[in-house]
From TrEMBL:
Annotated pathway: Nucleoside biosynthesis; alpha-ribazole biosynthesis; alpha-ribazole from 5,6-dimethylbenzimidazole: step 1/2
Xref: Pfam families: DBI_PRT (PF02277)
Signal sequence residues: none
GO function terms (MF aspect): nicotinate-nucleotide-dimethylbenzimidazole phosphoribosyltransferase activity
Name of the molecule in the record: Nicotinate-nucleotide--dimethylbenzimidazole phosphoribosyltransferase
Organism: Jiella sonneratiae
C-alpha cells in the first residue's frame, strides 16, 4: 500500500510491480509441443497459446476453471443521446443474464465456462463527461479494486466482458484520450446508430475531450474523467489477474478500452492478455493495432457481454487440452521425421 493516501497511488504500485512471464515454463511448453504427435508447428496459433498460458500461469498450461466476468455500468453521458437504446436496458440485460436468456449464457454453457455478472451501482450513473469527470478518484480506484475481486474465485483463465448502454461512446472517448484523434475517428454504430445520430455521438465525444483536454496526459485521469464503472472494474480485473498468474482474454471494442488504459500506463501490462476477437465496431481494429495485438477471431460480432472472449476461450481450452493430453512420438510409437 502507498503511504501518500492518494487512491491511484496503489494502482500505480500494482503496475510497477507486475510480474514478468515465467520463461522456463514457456520454454518447457515449447519443447513439449515439438514432441507431440504432429508435424512441428502444425497446430499454428494453438501452439503459441499453449506457450503463452505456460508463461503466465508459471507451469504446465491448464484451463480447468475458466471464468467469464461481465461488468455492468450506466453512464451519465447517455443524457446527450449517444445510444440507439435507453439506459434501463443495462439492468434489464443483467436480469436476462441472471435468467440465462442472453447470448453469453448460451456460449458459456456450450463451452463449460463459468459466468459471473457484476452490477456496478446501475441506479447511479456516472457523471456526464461533457460537463464533469465521470468519476472521482476514490470511486474509480475503488471500482478497480472491486474488479480485482473476480480473482477470489481462483479462475485459471479469465474472460473479460461488459454490459452498459452508452459505453461505446465512452470507449471511443477513452481511445481518443489515450491514443489521440477525434470523436469522428473513434465513434461507431454501437447498438445501431447511423447518419446524424452517429455524427452527434462523435460531437459529444469531442465535447468531452475539449472539457478534459488539460488532464489527458495521465491514463488513470483519462479513465476516471471519460470512463465508467464497468471500464474501471475491467481494468482492475486485468491488472489483478496479472498479479495472480491468470491469463486473460479480452472481449471487444469496449473491454479493449479498459485494456488500453493499462497499455498506456505500461505497454507490458497486456502481455498476459489475448484479444478474443475483432469486433465489427468501427475503430476496434485500429485500437488493437495501436496496442500491437492480433485478435484471435473475426466473426463480425459486435455484441459485447464477453461473447467474443468466451468463444476464444473455447480455442484456448482446446490448445491446453492438446498440449496436455496428446501423445508424444515416443509414447505412441509414431516415427518422427529424420
Ligand atoms: O464491445 C463491443 O465490441 C461492442 C460493440 C457494440 C456494442 N456493444 C454493446 O452494446 C452496448 C453499448 O452500445 P451503445 O450503442 O449503447 O453504446 C454495451 O452493452 C456493449 O456491451 C459492444
Ligand atoms: C439487447 C441488448 C443486449 C446487449 N448485450 C450487450 N449489449 C447489449 C445491448 C442491447 C440493446
Amino acid at each position: 500500500m502507498s503511504t501518500t493516501g492518494l487512491p491511484f497511488d496503489d494502482i500505480r504500485d500494482l503496475v510497477r510491480t507486475m510480474p514478468a512471464p515465467d520463461v522456463a515454463a514457456a520454454h518447457a511448453a515449447r519443447h513439449r509441443e515439438q514432441e507431440l504427435t504432429k508435424p512441428a508447428g502444425s497446430l499454428g496459433r494453438l501452439e503459441e497459446i499453449s506457450e503463452w498460458l505456460a508463461a503466465w500461469q508459471g507451469g504446465v498450461p491448464h484451463v480447468d476453471r475458466p471464468l467469464v466476468a461481465v461488468f455492468a455500468g450506466n453512464h451519465g453521458v447517455m443524457r446527450q443521446g449517444v445510444s440507439a437504446f435507453p439506459p434501463e436496458v443495462t439492468a434489464q440485460m443483467v436480469a436476462n443474464f441472471g435468467a440465462g436468456g442472453a447470448a453469453i449464457n448460451q456460449i458459456c454453457a456450450t463451452f463449460d465456462l463459468s459466468l459471473k455478472v457484476y452490477d456496478l451501482a446501475l441506479e447511479i450513473p456516472t457523471e456526464d463527461f461533457t460537463e464533469a469527470a465521470a468519476m472521482d478518484e476514490r470511486t474509480c480506484a475503488a471500482t478497480m479494486a472491486f474488479g480485482m475481486e473476480v480473482l477470489m474465485d481462483k479462475p485459471d483463465l479469465l474472460c473479460i466482458g461488459e454490459m452498459g448502454i452508452g459505453n461505446t461512446a465512452v470507449a471511443a472517448a477513452l481511445y481518443a484520450g489515450l491514443f489521440g484523434g477525434t470523436g469522428a475517428d473513434w465513434a461507431g454504430a454501437g447498438t445501431g446508430l447511423a447518419g446524424e445520430a452517429l455524427a452527434r455521438k462523435a460531437a459529444v465525444i469531442d465535447a468531452g475531450l475539449a472539457f478534459h483536454r488539460s488532464h489527458l496526459g495521465d491514463p488513470l485521469e483519462v479513465l476516471r474523467r471519460l470512463g465508467g464503472r464497468e471500464i474501471a472494474a475491467m481494468a482492475g480485473a486485468i491488472l489483478g489477474a496479472r498479479h495472480q498468474k491468470v491469463p486473460v482474454i479480452i472481449d471487444g471494442f469496449v473491454a479493449s478500452a479498459a485494456a488500453a488504459v493499462l497499455y498506456r500506463l505500461d505497454p507490458r501490462a497486456l502481455d498476459h492478455c489475448l484479444f478474443g476477437h475483432v469486433s465489427a465496431e468501427r475503430g476496434h481494429m485500429k485500437a488493437l493495432e495501436a496496442m500491437g495485438k492480433v485478435p484471435l477471431l473475426a466473426l463480425g460480432m459486435r455484441l459485447g457481454e464477453g461473447t467474443g472472449a468466451a468463444l476464444a476461450a473455447s480455442i484456448v481450452k482446446a490448445a491446453a487440452r492438446c498440449h496436455r493430453d496428446m501423445a508424444t512420438f515416443a509414447e505412441a510409437a509414431v516415427s518422427n521425421r529424420d
